[in-house]
Design a protein that fits this description.
The complex is a heterodimer of chains A (539) and B (442). Chain A is built from four helices and 38 strands. Chain A has 539 residues and is mainly beta. Chain B is mainly alpha-helical and 442 residues long. The longest helix of chain B is centred in the C-terminal third of the chain and has 29 residues. The chains are: A mainly beta (539), B mainly alpha (442).
Chain lengths: 539, 442
């Protein structure tokens, strides 16, 4: 396998008359997106005033085992809407509004998670008010499970979630981030409410089938995104929290030790942690420089951050010191890149994915004013930043056709029609959500995989998928969390460039590594521990 | 003209909400007095400074000036001993007068004036700030009008608003009313080449050009012109180890290497970063409001303090910014990394504009001079400004002790050379002389 060479890319582009981002920079294939919101049947608005100025998430997941990603769109003060994916492979997108049991109001976001490891996706619904866990019943039906699973939904303003399976646990641990005290009217600043860590209940002699009373993660600083991530490849994920400095006092970004059987503790300056204070709104993670450690993109207002380890040791524990390389990589995305409104941007959901299948992950950022903030852009187009072979990024949102200036919040890049190209859904405040189909004609090859392991943790959260690309290894961590109030469970996608097959392996959550397997590209596979990959075909 | 308050309002007024927030001892609360209204709105204004992205220190100082003058003028037309500032402050014409023989309620009037002024001088704040202002206005209005005759309440509100509208109209053409891109030039500004000159000190894209390069062209309030308090040039730029410039840089470098816990605390206490604090001018307004609450100042004295402090802080930033862009001096972080130690990092975030003089020093020297004029030498106080962020209060024997503390904090923080601090403090003293010359009493 090898990455599409520069020469080949240039030749191909010249022959095909392709658009390139900038002739002076390395050429990248500009993806092509076609908006199909109306024709696909999507009509959902994230509505509400002050209590819904943040949030506005979407969850994508397959709830009827047909391989196609269905989705739940948060409605804010309105009931959320569930759409069943009726698309056909490679064709235009098509969804049907259906009753699923998930249609709760006051919802800010949602994350799919197979809580009980029965192979059917469940969901955690974040709300202004009581959070609710919904048990999947199959065929896209869900029922409330707070009582049966001992989940205390509380009465907060919940805005973020991350989940993991701690070592030795048969039940997940869920962290939920809570925003300000919404009852504070004249001085809400400094009123950040406690985040909660819902760990498995420990009942002697009984299996873990319930959540314990949530543990308050003090101090809490109004997070808008959180992610369990094995940032130092220790085998135990830590909890990265991105906090909104608008509301905390004495706060900063946070990284928590969450070690099995122990109380969570914050990483300290002695461990290398350095204070960073931003309007933290979203987290995306990916190993961009192939050093085995992930980079973290943090959305904010004006400049966004791309953090990388200040030192990435090969044979020693990494210090928790990060440096910002957003400027150097061209991903500050601090102001609109087109149009006449050049005030600073406001960024929310973010996600690394390879939208043109060239073997280099790209970066999507949803943009939108909080609400009539005159110092920030109102016409703030979403970003689609394409990675070049040099590891820098070029803006292509406009050329790709996804530069919506609606007031965007949550989003998901997902292959809704199983054609190997990642489509896009974006949730907008006060305006209908938007859906785009990726129609890129000259994209590279791809592979999509699902992980399945015996219960618990059927979806292998905390595992890693590795794909060799010449001398380099692309790695992605399997996580639940991050983005902005938006979660996904489904196929994991890799672009392969001009390679027609992929050499791939899985590092399972228990640390064991599967064998490297050569798999034909442009195909779907189910990966299970100790077994050869199983090709999957849509029925 | 008459002034009345509800019978209930004669009850003892305790230390106010701002003092309570900061940990100042609070006695039993009583009815809402005009000073309570001031405190409640100023508490919110200090929050809005922190939570409105455009409110860098110069911009914040401007808002405090106009709000302070608003309440001063509104009170000055009543049964006070105050002398209007119209005709003294540049461009301020006679403010609307009260109707002769009519009764006004001072708390209702101030509530209306503060509501209008705050909503307009912080109109760029976000939805939470807007909501907080609207909620506070409703709550305070209900409180101050309870028991007040409807005609008196309406008249008082209309008058307070009329004064505030007059001040707002006056503010429009001062050069600082419109701030875009959070104060950073978008394309037209060109950096001055040469090692002595300022260059960006971080990798934040919007901060690759300096903050508010034209702020020194704004209309001053009482200082004759922005350059009325000129500074001697900074030490001549040099990379020679025997030069004054190098030695001052080495002092900053060495200070960081040997910081004591006390010096670190001083640096943090006065850090006052925009968007993470109430900023340096907000810090001094906070000191003023704490003293107002602690000492239960009467209404005349309260608005006199707020007006004088607002004016001097605003003039300080205009004067300081004029000098900053006249000299356009390189920051310690740039020089030290280039000449002394490429791995050196200061304790504090380096502000994104030229070094000389130190803005915090200029405005602290100015504020201390005005406060000393108002309250006297050796006036001791505790400053609880940083308490909500977990900073321990500091006690000062005088206002100038606080100003000196603020000044040297910038050296400990690694963001200013000594000359910028010492001459900044002196520049502040000079600027304050104009404010102190204001006639505020009949």
């Amino acid at each position: 396998m090898r990455l599409m060479s520069l020469r080949l890319a240039l030749t191909t582009a010249a022959l095909m008359g392709l658009a390139h981002a900038n002739a002076a920079e390395s050429p990248v294939t500009i993806p092509s997106y076609v908006e199909e919101t109306t024709s696909a049947g999507i009509d959902s608005i994230y509505a509400g005033e002050w209590e819904y100025m943040v949030g506005g998430g979407v969850a994508t997941f397959d709830c009827n085992a047909d391989g196609f990603a269905d989705m739940l769109l948060a409605g804010g003060e309105n009931p959320s809407k569930f759409y069943r994916n009726k698309s056909k492979r490679g064709e235009a997108l098509h969804f049907e509004l259906q009753t699923s049991g998930l249609e709760l109001d006051r919802m800010t976001g949602a994350y799919p998670l197979d809580v009980d490891s029965d192979g059917i996706t469940d969901l955690v619904l974040l709300r202004v008010g009581e959070n609710v866990v919904m048990r999947g019943l199959g065929d896209c039906k869900f029922e409330r499970a707070n009582e049966s699973w001992g989940f205390e939904g509380g009465d907060g303003w919940s805005t973020s979630l991350a989940a993991t399976w701690e070592k030795g646990s048969t039940w997940p641990t869920i962290a939920i981030g809570n925003y300000i005290d919404r009852k504070e009217e004249t001085s809400p600043w400094g009123s950040c409410t406690d985040n909660w860590l819902h760990r498995p209940a420990q009942v002697v002699g009984a299996p873990q089938l319930m959540f314990a009373k949530p543990w308050p993660l003090k101090p809490s600083f109004c997070p808008l995104s959180m992610l369990f991530t094995d940032w130092n490849r220790s085998g135990t994920p830590s909890l990265r929290i991105s906090n909104d400095r608008e509301y905390y006092e004495g706060g900063q970004e946070q990284l928590w030790h969450v070690d099995p059987g122990k109380e969570p503790t914050l990483f300290t300056e002695k461990e290398g942690w350095r204070p960073l204070r931003i309007w933290g709104m979203g987290i995306a993670a990916y190993d961009l420089d192939f050093d085995g450690y992930q980079e973290y993109f943090l959305t904010s207002m004006a400049d966004n951050k791309l953090q990388t380890l200040a030192a990435a040791p090969k044979d020693a524990p990494a210090q928790a010191t990060f440096k910002d390389v957003a400027f150097a990589k061209g991903v500050t995305a601090h102001r609109p890149y087109q149009g006449d409104d050049l005030r600073p941007s406001t960024a929310w959901h973010t996600q690394f994915e390879d939208v043109n299948n060239d073997g280099l992950v790209d970066l999507f950022v949803a943009k939108g004013n909080v609400a009539k903030m005159p110092d920030f852009a109102n016409k703030d187009p979403n970003n689609l930043l394409l990675q070049t072979v040099e590891g820098k990024f070029q803006e292509a949102g406009g050329k790709a056709g996804v530069a919506s200036i609606a007031t965007s919040r949550g989003a998901a890049l997902a292959d809704f029609n199983l054609d190997g190209l990642l489509d896009l859904v974006v949730i907008n405040r006060w305006e209908t959500a938007q859906l785009w189909r990726n129609t890129t004609a000259n994209a590279g090859h791809w592979i999509e995989v699902k992980l399945q392991q015996p219960a618990p943790n059927r979806d292998a959260i905390g595992g890693w998928i590795e794909v060799k690309r010449g001398e380099k290894v692309m790695r992605r961590e399997i996580t639940v969390g991050g983005g902005h109030a938006s979660g996904q469970n489904g196929w994991w996608h890799f672009g392969l460039g001009d390679a027609t097959e992929a050499e791939l392996r899985v590092v399972w959550p228990n640390g064991s590594s599967g064998d490297w397997q050569k798999l034909a590209g442009n195909a779907f596979y189910i990966l299970e521990p100790g077994k050869p990959a199983t090709a999957w075909t849509a029925k | 003209m008459k002034t009345t308050r509800r019978t209930l309002a004669m009850a003892v007024v305790a230390l106010l909400s701002w003092g309570a927030l900061l940990g100042v001892p609070v006695a039993q609360a009583g009815a809402l007095q005009p000073q309570d209204v001031l405190q409640r709105w100023y508490k919110l204004a200090l929050e809005l400074v922190r939570h409105t992205a455009t409110y860098s220190p110069p911009v914040a100082s401007r808002s405090f000036a106009y709000i302070g003058v608003t309440v001063f003028e509104a009170v000055a037309t009543g049964p006070s001993q105050l002398q209007t500032l119209a005709g003294q402050l540049h461009g301020l014409k006679d403010v609307p007068q009260r109707e002769a023989g009519k009764t006004y309620d001072e708390a209702v009037m101030i509530q209306a004036a503060m509501a209008f002024a705050t909503q307009n001088f912080f109109d760029h704040t976000g939805p939470t700030g807007q909501r907080a202002m609207a909620t506070l206005e409703t709550k305070l209005r209900d409180e101050v009008t309870a028991g007040v005759a409807p005609d008196v309440a309406i008249r008082s509100e209309e008058y307070g608003r009329a004064v505030a509208e007059h001040i707002l109209a006056w503010s429009k053409d001062d050069g600082g009313a419109v701030v875009t891109n959070m104060g950073f030039p978008e394309d037209e500004y060109k950096l001055i080449p040469g090692p002595a000159h300022w260059v960006p000190t971080n990798l934040i894209a919007v901060q690759q050009k300096p903050l508010l390069p034209n702020w020194g062209n704004n209309r001053t309030f009482i200082m004759p012109a922005s350059n009325s308090c000129p500074l001697a040039p900074p030490p001549e730029y040099s990379e020679d180890k025997s030069s004054v410039f190098y030695k001052e840089a080495l002092e900053v470098y060495d200070a960081k290497q040997k910081l004591t816990p006390e010096q670190r605390a001083i640096a943090r206490f006065w850090s006052d970063d925009p968007m993470l604090s109430m900023t340096p001018p907000g810090h001094w307004i906070s000191i003023a409001t704490q003293i107002m609450a602690r000492d239960k100042l009467d209404l005349d004295k309260s608005v006199e303090v707020l007006a004088r402090m607002g004016v001097v802080l605003a003039d300080s930033f205009i004067g300081c910014w004029q000098a900053k862009f006249q000299y356009d001096l390189v920051r310690p972080i740039t020089y030290i990394k280039r000449i002394i130690d490429p791995k050196w990092e200061p304790l504090l975030n380096t502000p994104p504009f030229p070094e000389y003089p130190s803005g915090h020093s200029t405005q602290s020297g100015a504020a201390a001079t005005v406060m000393t004029s108002l309250f006297g030498e050796n006036f001791s106080f505790e400053d609880y400004t940083g308490s909500p962020d977990g900073l321990k209060p500091r006690t000062f024997a005088s206002f100038w002790a606080a100003a000196d503390d603020a000044g040297i904090s910038r050296l400990y923080g690694g963001i200013h050379f000594r000359s910028a601090i010492e001459r900044g403090l002196e520049q502040g003293r000079c600027i304050a002389a104009y404010t102190n010359a204001l006639r505020t009493r009949k």
